[in-house]
Every structure is written in structure tokens, then in C-alpha cells.
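User: I've been trying to design a sequence by hand for this structure and keep getting stuck. Would you show me what you'd pick, starting by listing the structure so we're on the same page?

Assistant: Good idea, let's start from the same input. This is the structure you sent:
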């Protein structure tokens, strides 16, 4: 084809060759087959025509085919050019592009994909997105993604993937499904954009915003607090939100005592370094106080071989490293802000920067709080001194002076306990104490009654000998501290002498559980109080002596007057009882004597046929008179021997049952029903059987005397630790005004004494005395319907070897004794 310019030249060449071949063939036919020239001429004409005809047809279709092929070639070139352009564009794209098949396997990735993931074309093709999984998402996340794209929808979002080298990165990804004409998904195209740096920038911006918000929040929280420990606590609560620490604390330094104190601490788990914990300052910290320009801004300390007790305690709590940030305000070191971690290299530069920002705000707040506290303390001290002076001038009461002193000192100086110790020669006695109430009355009583020998108590002897106050920073380090003082909670102690007329008459002592608490500033304040109290104590002592002497005289007069008044009242009461007794006895005797006189007269002048009746009445009245006199003498004689009895285990059921049997006949004769209900397992009591029988007898006799009709019921039962006997009747009852005096000796109710029922008023008095001697209680009350109930409560015996149970052979059901 390269020798011909076009197909037409090729066509003529082929026709020429064909005609030449036909002529040669015809010549051969003539030479060897003997064809005629006419036949050859015809054959040449026909052959030539046929050659021209077939050549035209063939070359027509060939030209058409050539044109079509040319067009297809041109189209293919255009497509290849477009594909090449697209491929070049995709290859040159900044975003990673990956094309997968229907199963999610990579079939093409660009160079940006390799740069993003670390996997080149050969490594990626045939793999799936699983090679990029970071482990940050669960299976549900990927299932949702796959369900979205397989359904023909586009998925887009942010994904954290893992680079070939293991590094995590964040990409913004769009996955588009490729859908053919029939709606079937054939491929997926993923476009990925690395947004890790943007995420880091956003994180930094958010972190910075959070830092600003945190600092602002801390500042606002600090402004709402005034106490240093509250300020420190609120700061630590926020620190955990910004810095990954396992322990955080704030401590302040005291230049007076060379001690540090923990204001607040937050620890994962328990910690021995709690708020209020004191520790001695190191030489470096003391030097920093004296020369603030030597302060190191931040110390990063790894705890490997701690030398201080605090360091050892922190190490024991699992802290391996911490940062120590000084709290500096107005050029002065006031404390430290510490953050601890359980792993080394935990704190980054950002963490340290945040901690320093927080420390700056904290230092300013603590300094302001200290200045405010100092100003308020000075104002409180001045006010307390002024009010103390006014209060001491307003009273001469010794106890009031001491109480006022401790109350006012509390406003100026903090303490856990305070004592005022009186000095008399070599004796020192605590006369007033405060602060031990929370430990209970036993400890308070013990401390309040302590006394010492000055010569044997080192701190007191030093004050007496030197006539100066004494500060003991830590009693555990003070040789000769009296451990038997009952002041186990004391660590720091200060004592100030109180002079009266130039002589130390008392000591004012304060103690604190926090060591190294008191300093010279406290001593100056206490001296001011002591100087005021000295004169007040002397005045109070003189006043107390005068008042004591006056009260002694008044007490003597009052005691004598009261004794005379009591004696006069007793005489009046005895005279009243004697008069009442004589009146009652006279009334009781007058009736039978009158009857005897009357029937003796009838016996002389009455009817003969009634002489026997007169004789019977005379005998009955004589018997009544004799019984009345005998009762008076028996009861009077009996009560004088009540306290001489010997007690033994007693069964109340036994005594009750036997006494009931004695009065059955008398009750039946009076037309009354006598019943009883005795608890079978009634425990024994400790008592005297005859006295208890007398009690039940007196109650039964009264019940029969004051019951006109009805019944009398005796019951026994156990109520708690008491064995109870109850005697209930349906008689006249008890007047309300008589109830308070019912058991008084010789007392008879107004209505009863006017009746014909005999009595002396001794019976119920004897009942109460016997029951009280047995440690029991006697009660009387009216029943709801009528009658009265007497209830005896006797304590169950604990001394008896065994309980005694009544086992008399009788029907346990209620037994009734009736005259019918």
C-alpha cells in the first residue's frame, strides 16, 4: 500500500495484472490447445469485461469498508484521546480516586491514592477497602455504608483510615455507584480527600477555645469564692477537664513557720496527703521565698528516689512524674500547683501551657484571698479586743470572763482546743476548756479535771521561768511533752502567761491539729487579750470571794429558814393527820359504843321475848368494836417491821390463791361473786410472802367492804419485766378528788368517811409501802361502768434460781364462788 497513493491506483494495477494474466493464458491456449483467434478474442473481451466488472464491485465495497474503518479508527483515536485526557486528569487530581468492581475490589487507583494510603497501583488492585480499616468503627458502620452504595445511592462522610505504615489519618470520602442502562450497579468510584491537617487545626482551635472558656470559667468560679481552700478546690475540679492527670494539688507556703500546707487535693483513689496536711519547706523553697527571682517557672520531676515524706507518699500512690508550677503573685512566691501522672512523659507542652495559665489565675486569686483574709483578721482582732474590753468591764463573774475570752479569741485566732490554766504555786489546774465537746462528755470531763505540777511540765515551767510566751511548732518533736494530758489531737501549741499584779496567775493555751500553725503574729494578738484579762481576773477573784462569803451567809440563813419551815410544815401535817385520825377513829368507835349503850338499855327495859335478839346485837357490836381496835393496833405495829423482812423467791399465784380461799366465805356472806384468773406460767418475784399476802388481803377486804353487789375479780399476768396482780370490783368507785391521796396514811375519802363502812385509812398506805419496798408500783383507777381496779406491778425476779409456777390442782378455767 505504500507504493500506491490511493485505492484507485491499486485497482488499475490489479486490472492490468489480471488482463496480462488473461492474455498469457489465452496465448497458452492457442499454442497448446489450438484455440482459434476468434475464440481467443472473444474470451479476452469477455474476460477483460469480467475483470473490470468484478474489480469495480470489489473496489467499491473495499472503498466503503476502508471509509468505515477510517471513521472507526478516527473515532477510536478520539475516544483514546478523551480517555487519555480523563486518565491524565484523574491521575493528576489532588484527591485520591479509586474505582472498584461490584464486589468492592480495586481495579484502578491514581497516584494521589498511593500518596494518601501508601499502597501503589499494583498493591491496591485486587484488594478491598479492608486494607485501610482503622478499627475505629464497628461492623454496623460498614454494613450501613455498603447498603447505601449497593442500593444505588451516593455515600459521603468523614472516615478515619489507617495508612500502610500504621498511621491513622482522616479523609473526606464520596462513594458514587456506576449504574448501567438497565439500572444495575456495575462499579463504584471513591473520591478521597485527606483532611487530617484540617482536623488537627480544628482540634487546636477547639482546644484553644476550650482553654479560653476554661480559664474564663475558672476566673468566674474563683470570683464567687473567698476562702483559699474553696478557691483551690474549684480550680482542681476544672483542671481534670483540661489536663490528663491522676493527681492534682494546691499548697501554700507560710513564711512565718517555714511550713507548707495542702489546700486541696484530687486523687484517683485514696490519698494520705489530704487537705490540711502540713510539710516542712525545702531549702530551695525557703530560698525562693527570700529571693523570688530564683524561682524556676516549671519543674518536671520524675519520682524515682524521693527524699521527702511527701514524695514518698505520692510515689506510694502510684505517681511516677509530676509538674510543679510555682504560684507567684506580685513578685512573691505563695505556693505551688502540682499535677501528677502515673506514667512518665504524660504531659505535653500544651498541657504545661494550660497549667501555667491556670496557675497564674489561681495565684492572683489566692493572693487576693490572703490579703482579704489578713485585712479581715486584723479588723476582727481589733473588734474582738474592743468588745472584750467592754465585756470584761461589764461583768465580774469569773466563768463569764473566761467564756467571753475564748469566744472573742475564736474570732481572732483559729484553734481546735483552748484552755485557761490557773497557776497556784507549783500546781496548775485547767479551770476552763473549749473544743473537746465533739469528743463526748467523758473526754470533756477528763480534760476539764486535769492538773499538773509546774516543775514536772516542761512547757509550763519554761513560761513561768522566762515570763514569756512559748510556741511549740510540733509537740511530737518537743522533748518532754506530757502525753498523759489527754490531748492526743494536739500538734501545734502556744501558751501565753496572764499576769495579775505582776505575777503569772494563769496561762492561756491554744492547740491545733495542724503542726507549725502558730507564729509570732498569733502571740502578739494573744498578749493583747491576756493583758485585758489579767485585771479582769483579779477583779473577778475579789468579787468571787466577796460573793462566796455573801452567798455562804445567805445560804446559812436560807437553810435555817427552810429547815424551820419544813419542820413547821411537818408539824402541821402531823397535827392534821392526828386530828383526822382521831376524828376517824372516834367516828368508828362512836357507832358501836352507841349501839352497845342503846341495846343495854333495851336489855333492861325492853320486851322479854327480844332479850335474845338484844344479846346477839350486843355480842356483834362488841365483836366489831374489838376487831376495830385490834386492826388499829395490828396495822400500826405491823408497818414498823416492814423493812426488817427477809426476801425469797415468791410465787404470786400461790399467795393470791391462798388469800382468795380465806375470803371466799366472807364474800359469799356479803352476796358477792369472787372470781380469779391466774396466769399459769407467771415468773417468780423476789419478796416477803407474808407482806405480799397482807397486800392482797387489804385489797380484798376493801373490795368486799365497798362493793354492794356484783363481783370481785383477781387476775395475774406478766407485762414485760413485771408480774402484775389486779383486783377489780363493781363497787362504789373512787371520787376523782380522792385519787391523788388514796395511798396516804390515815386518809379516807370524804364520801367514804361519812358512810357506815368501817376503816382507819391505814390499809392502802400499808399496801403502797410494801409494794415500793419490793421495787414495784401500785395504781388505782375507776372502771368504765362502775367500781375500781387496783393494779400491783412487781419486778420479775432475776435472783431466783428458777421460776416457780403455780400448780395447785384446780380447774384453770375461771372459778366462781357464789352464795347461790
Amino acid at each position: 500500500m505504500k507504493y500506491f497513493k490511493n485505492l484507485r491506483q491499486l485497482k488499475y494495477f490489479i486490472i492490468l495484472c489480471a488482463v496480462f494474466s488473461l492474455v498469457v493464458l489465452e496465448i497458452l491456449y492457442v499454442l497448446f490447445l489450438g484455440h482459434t483467434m476468434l475464440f481467443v478474442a472473444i474470451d479476452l473481451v469477455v474476460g477483460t469485461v469480467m475483470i473490470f466488472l468484478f474489480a469495480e464491485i470489489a473496489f467499491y465495497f473495499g472503498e466503503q469498508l476502508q471509509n468505515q474503518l477510517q471513521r472507526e479508527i478516527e473515532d477510536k483515536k478520539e475516544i483514546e484521546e478523551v480517555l487519555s485526557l480523563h486518565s491524565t486528569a484523574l491521575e493528576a487530581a489532588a484527591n485520591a480516586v479509586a474505582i472498584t468492581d461490584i464486589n468492592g475490589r480495586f481495579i484502578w487507583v491514581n497516584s494521589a491514592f498511593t500518596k494518601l494510603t501508601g499502597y501503589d497501583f499494583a498493591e491496591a488492585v485486587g484488594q478491598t477497602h479492608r486494607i485501610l480499616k482503622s478499627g475505629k468503627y464497628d461492623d454496623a458502620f460498614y454494613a450501613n455504608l455498603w447498603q447505601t452504595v449497593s442500593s444505588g445511592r451516593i455515600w459521603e462522610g468523614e472516615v478515619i483510615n489507617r495508612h500502610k505504615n500504621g498511621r491513622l489519618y482522616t479523609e473526606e470520602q464520596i462513594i458514587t455507584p456506576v449504574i448501567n442502562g438497565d439500572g444495575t450497579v456495575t462499579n463504584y468510584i471513591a473520591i478521597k480527600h485527606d483532611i487530617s491537617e484540617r482536623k488537627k487545626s480544628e482540634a487546636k482551635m477547639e482546644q484553644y477555645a476550650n482553654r479560653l472558656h476554661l480559664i474564663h470559667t475558672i476566673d468566674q468560679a474563683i470570683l464567687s469564692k473567698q476562702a483559699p481552700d474553696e478557691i483551690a478546690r474549684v480550680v482542681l475540679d476544672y483542671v481534670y477537664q483540661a489536663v490528663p492527670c491522676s493527681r492534682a494539688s494546691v499548697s501554700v507556703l507560710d513564711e512565718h513557720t517555714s511550713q507548707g500546707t495542702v489546700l486541696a487535693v484530687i486523687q484517683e483513689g485514696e490519698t494520705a496527703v489530704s487537705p490540711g496536711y502540713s510539710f516542712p519547706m525545702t531549702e530551695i523553697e525557703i530560698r525562693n521565698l527570700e529571693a523570688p527571682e530564683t524561682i524556676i517557672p516549671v519543674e518536671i520531676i520524675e519520682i524515682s528516689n524521693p527524699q521527702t515524706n511527701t514524695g514518698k507518699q505520692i510515689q506510694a500512690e502510684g505517681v511516677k512524674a509530676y509538674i510543679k508550677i510555682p504560684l507567684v503573685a506580685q513578685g512573691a512566691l505563695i505556693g505551688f500547683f502540682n499535677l501528677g501522672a502515673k506514667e512518665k512523659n504524660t504531659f505535653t507542652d500544651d498541657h504545661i501551657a494550660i497549667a501555667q495559665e491556670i496557675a497564674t489565675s489561681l495565684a492572683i486569686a489566692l493572693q487576693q484571698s490572703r490579703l482579704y483574709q489578713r485585712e479581715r483578721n486584723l479588723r476582727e482582732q481589733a473588734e474582738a479586743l474592743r468588745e472584750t474590753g467592754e465585756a470584761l468591764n461589764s461583768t465580774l463573774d469569773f466563768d463569764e470572763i473566761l467564756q467571753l475570752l475564748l469566744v472573742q479569741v475564736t474570732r481572732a485566732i483559729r484553734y481546735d482546743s483552748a484552755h485557761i490554766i490557773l497557776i497556784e504555786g507549783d500546781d496548775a489546774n485547767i479551770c476552763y476548756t473549749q473544743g473537746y465537746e465533739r469528743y463526748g462528755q467523758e473526754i470533756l470531763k477528763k480534760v476539764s479535771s486535769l492538773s499538773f505540777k509546774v516543775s514536772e511540765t516542761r512547757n509550763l515551767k519554761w513560761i513561768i521561768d522566762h515570763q514569756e510566751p512559748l510556741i511549740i511548732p510540733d509537740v511530737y518533736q518537743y522533748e518532754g511533752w506530757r502525753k498523759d494530758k489527754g490531748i492526743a489531737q494536739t500538734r501545734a501549741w502556744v501558751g501565753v502567761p496572764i499576769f495579775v499584779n505582776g505575777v503569772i496567775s494563769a496561762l492561756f493555751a491554744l492547740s491545733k491539729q495542724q503542726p507549725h500553725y502558730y507564729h509570732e503574729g498569733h502571740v502578739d494578738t494573744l498578749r493583747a487579750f491576756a493583758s485585758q484579762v489579767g485585771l479582769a481576773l483579779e477583779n473577778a477573784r475579789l468579787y468571787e470571794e466577796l460573793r462566796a462569803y455573801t452567798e455562804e451567809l445567805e445560804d446559812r440563813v436560807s437553810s435555817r429558814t427552810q429547815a424551820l419551815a419544813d419542820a413547821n410544815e411537818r408539824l402541821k401535817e402531823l397535827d392534821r393527820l392526828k386530828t383526822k385520825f382521831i376524828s376517824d377513829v372516834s367516828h368508828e368507835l362512836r357507832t358501836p359504843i352507841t349501839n352497845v349503850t342503846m341495846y343495854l338499855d333495851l336489855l333492861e327495859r325492853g320486851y322479854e321475848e327480844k332479850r335474845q335478839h338484844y344479846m346477839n346485837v350486843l355480842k356483834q357490836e362488841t365483836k366489831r368494836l374489838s376487831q376495830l381496835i385490834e386492826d388499829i393496833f395490828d396495822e400500826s405495829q405491823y408497818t414498823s417491821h416492814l423493812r426488817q423482812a427477809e426476801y425469797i423467791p415468791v410465787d404470786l399465784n400461790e399467795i393470791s390463791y391462798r388469800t382468795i380461799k380465806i375470803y371466799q366465805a366472807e364474800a359469799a356472806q356479803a352476796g358477792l361473786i369472787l372470781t380469779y384468773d391466774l396466769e399459769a406460767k407467771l415468773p417468780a418475784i423476789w419478796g416477803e410472802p407474808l407482806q405480799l399476802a397482807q397486800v392482797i388481803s387489804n385489797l380484798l377486804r376493801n373490795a368486799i367492804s365497798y362493793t354492794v353487789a356484783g363481783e370481785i375479780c383477781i387476775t395475774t399476768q406478766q407485762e414485760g419485766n413485771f408480774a402484775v396482780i389486779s383486783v377489780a370490783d363493781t363497787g362504789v368507785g373512787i371520787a376523782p378528788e380522792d385519787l391523788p391521796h388514796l395511798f396516804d396514811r390515815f386518809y379516807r375519802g370524804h364520801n367514804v368517811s361519812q358512810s357506815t363502812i368501817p376503816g382507819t385509812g391505814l390499809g392502802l398506805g400499808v399496801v403502797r409501802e410494801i409494794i415500793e419496798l419490793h421495787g414495784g408500783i401500785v395504781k388505782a383507777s375507776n372502771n368504765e361502768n362502775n367500781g375500781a381496779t387496783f393494779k400491783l406491778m412487781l419486778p420479775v425476779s432475776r435472783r431466783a434460781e428458777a421460776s416457780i409456777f403455780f400448780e395447785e390442782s384446780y380447774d384453770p378455767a375461771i372459778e366462781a364462788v357464789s352464795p347461790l
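That's my pick for every position. To get oriented when you compare it with your attempt: The chain is about 50% helix and 20% strand. Residues 800-820 have pLDDT under 50 and may be disordered.
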